[in-house]
Amino acid sequence: MGIEAGIGTAIATTAGLTTATGGLTAAGTALAIAVNLAISAGLSAGAAALSAPDQGPRKPSRTGNIKQPLSPHEVVYGSVRKGGVIFFVSGSHFANTRLHMCIALAAHECESIEAVYINGQLNELVAVVPSDGVPPYGEYHPELGDEYIMYVPDTGHARSRFSAFNWRLGTATQEAIPGMVMDCEEWTVDHRALGICYFYSRLVYDVTDDSKIWPSFIPAMTVRMKGRKDIYDPRDESTGWTDNPALIAANVLETLLNVPRERIDTDALIEAANICDETVPLKGGGTEKRYRCCGYFSLEGEPGDWLEPIIRAMAGTCIEHHGDYYIHAGTWREPEVTITDANIMGAIRVRTATSDRERANVARGIFASAESHDQPTEFPRIIHADGVTEDGLELEMDINLEFVPSSTQAQRVAKILLLTAREGRTVEVGLDLLTGLDVKPWDTVTLDLQTMGLSGLFRVIEHKTTIEGGDNPAVMPTLTLREVSESFYAWDEATEEQELALASPVIPGSDLEPDNLEYSVAVNSSNAAFFPGTVTATWEDPALIDFDAIEVQVIMHFQWRPNSLTAWSDEVIEANGEVAPGVGTLALQVIDEDFAGSSFEFQGHVIERVRVRTRVTSTSWSDWTEIEGDLRAPLGVSKTFTPYSSKTGHKIGAVKMVWNPPADITPAAYEVEAKVEYEWKQGANPYVAATYVENRARVKGKKINLVLWDKGKPGGSTQFQNHTLVYARVRSLNGDGTVSEWTNL
């Protein structure tokens, strides 16, 4: 597909999404839930997460974008990598060689955009303003202010000339992006996307070769971002960004479910927030917070479903009690009340775990974080060994912990949920009024019912008031208790923490790598553009049938000067390109289009490296297949020769050698060599003339004290005289064994 036709198709498929002033359309979603019963019903599901952690469907990916005319708003908490909804696409310039695209990330103000990924690769970005005279502006534009700032991949990367980015964080007063307004006539100063955090990309295509940089036409672009920043913390009465799940749960109640702040119990919230911020040791050293929460959800479906993954991330609960909401994080709480036969006023109902799901002895499930390459990934299974022995087989419980940002936290949470579901009996009991009023949800109580032989430690998971007594009705608190143990929350990182078995995004194996790589160079001695030459790489595609592209990288060193000057300057350019499967070759122009001038001269072309690899998917690659190119010799600094007059063993002397790496290249290692002429003798024997060469390969660093020791000569006490150091030299060494010319010191 040609560039012009491709952009036209993209615009057509997103018709109706180009109005950004009011944000995206929220399909069937209301932020305010007016009926309190709807809130309570939703929270009941969240409160039951420990007793029956029901799991919703997994998200297919955190690393892609979607295009559709209507989409519900998304809410982002903590730090996540994600794509979003493409809500604006347009082309500009000659033959539509510039593609402008806006991606909605969140329907609220966010803290920051931390990083940008293109086709799964992290791109380090640098800020550029028009007065810099570099991409994406190219020429010096002092008339444009710094508000025209854009962000481009770091200098030296080919994509710095073919892509530029900016974003808005979703404030209520944000302005349109000036660089986009200047470059895209369909986007005006009135297109502000108020309240929408969005990402803007501008991609530049070569109209003569639409596979040169972006063979898939529109690359997959995602960001790592920090989400909501309006989260209230009652501990210091501040408002800002956090990944504390207790505070996030309170924010969902207040901002999305319209629960007034005064109805969220402050003491419980402070206690839960402090528990989440506690540190726990890690097996490999260091610590992490006990509970963190990082994820996002769409504002659709049951409101209670929005809370559940947040509550589950801290193995906690959110319970409505007498009109107030209590948020708790999973931890052991000492019992405060003892319930005996004397306190019983109503029926007692006891239920034990009966289903295989409740009696599970193995917990498995997913989490998502940077360590899992931002994809939902299975954490190590938690196995209750005694339970497996008792049941005679493994019974698994699936737990979705996609809002948990580390495998170690996921393991700790999974253990709590597994043991609570398996070991806990549930007891419903009616109490006298005074005792019932003395406890509240999430308290731990001691149950000591002698008449039923029922005793143990229990947690209050539900507290309601009923009317009992027939002709003589009385108010009776009824508690639902869940058996609990301090061992549920105990964690020994030395014996319980398991290493995450994770597939690397680099997939090893020669069957995935391109093979038989060769290259040729066509150099330019002069050119009207800053174009020192072209490197043509050829290879054989891997046998893998289905893959995205072959990526090619070339690094060339050279010297240049304008025709009007006599002094030469050193320069290095890294050129990158990619081609679709089945092509097998790429003529990669080593060019920097941002140098202005009439014509240039070039000399001293040196290829540092040519390499290719298979991009299997947007998040996985093969290893590089590479050829080390010509190497420049090191830069000599000094040598100091110290001759020995006598030594035990045939140690003739030592040469201290110092050098610097060649300009703009760091070789894999260096090879050093020294040659000496001398005379030697042992005992009363006469002196004998000799020559010796000492060679040392794979030297790291930039200096060495090279001892000249001829181990082929006899040992013992030896005398030396008339030393002459013939040479001391060093050369660069590539990883594949190729070498540069020698540099004599």
UniProtKB/TrEMBL annotation:
Domain Tip attachment protein J: 303-460
Region Disordered, annotated ranges: 50-69
Pfam families linked to this entry: Phage-tail_3
Protein name (database record): Tip attachment protein J domain-containing protein
